[in-house]
Amino acid sequence: xxxxxxxxxxxxxxxxxxxxxxxxxxxxxxxxxxxxxxxxxxxxxxxxxxxxxxxxxxxxxxxxxxxxxxxxxxxxxxxxxxxxxxxxxxxxxxxxxxxxxxxxxxxxxxxxxxxxxxxxxxxxxxxxxxxxxxxxxxxxxxxxxxxxxxxxxxxxxxxxxxxxxxxxxxxxxxxxxxxxxxxxxxxxxxxxxxxxxxxxxxxxxxxxxxxxxxxxxxxxxxxxxxxxxxxxxxxxxxxxxxxxxxxxxxxxxxxxxxxxxxxxxxxxxxxxxxxxxxxxxxxxxxxxxxxxxxxxxxxxxxxxxxxxxxxxxxxxxxxxxxxxxxxxxxxxxxxxxxxxxxxxxxxxxxxxxxxxxxxxxxxxxxxxxxxxxxxxxxxxxxxxxxxx
Length: 388
Description:
Mean pLDDT: 94
Number of strands: 13
Oligomer: single chain
CATH topology of one domain: Ribosomal Protein S5, domain 2
Distance between the termini: 10 Å
Shape: globular
Strand order of the largest sheet: 5-4-6-3-1-13
Radius of gyration: 21 Å
């Protein structure tokens, strides 16, 4: 892979100048704890062995030349360090540019442009965080190129800052954190309110993680993501008049039921209920994993999907079809949508002997119901960003 990427880089940008280096940042999947990260709750994501590869070389001028092997038809997209304004024309390059901008905002001097070639083997639009992967990758490249004193956790915060302030997507910290802090064979139990985290070994004993990609494209910024976030903020403000809390994640189920009458709208009650109950489900799921009770973990995954479907309303026909058909397959321990919703992917824990039947049954019913194919990926849990 490394050799092929370097050859492609030299073909696009020429072989002269500083020696180019090859970098990698993973994608991520969240096992449970969805739409809790901006509500002060817990999340439980892991990094994957698929992700984004980058080949980068410092230039002698201030030009940024960027090329993606996933969007070859766009060719090399050029811009300059002297004009880092986000634009529609810049397309995908707004993500690396946003991170360069964020480094400059944080007082780290990026003096030279760069040639950058990207290749991602994360399915595009899948909800496995290709944008956050590109952000963490860019941060890792800049750190290496300039010797900046930033740790992996800083790369996560800078990536989130760039996505919020530069690209206008009001995302929480989970995606960038899972990617920057990934550890092989472990998921990350992260309290998004305090940023305290612990690694929890994932032992699936005779089962695998299967990602089912709906192939329904969605754009986060113009989706209902920001609307859900603002509904939760309003519900929180209403609850704060009745009970002393900082975030929805401060409540357990009993407290929520006691104070929910303070929320003045039924839709907001459901949104807040999801945030509170999903946070508690995530805490219980990690406890189940530690107790080696993978069946209970699976039941909590299923309950998570029901809540995302009924209370948070972010699933839709595609994701519901994938999950509800998965539940019918013998050997499926648990299945739920993962990511922001409205398209993207589901994550399932499937016993090894059932994987082929799973792909066939779920795939067939999906095609009949939705009218096009889903894609299936058996994935492994990998580490964080690396220089190859």
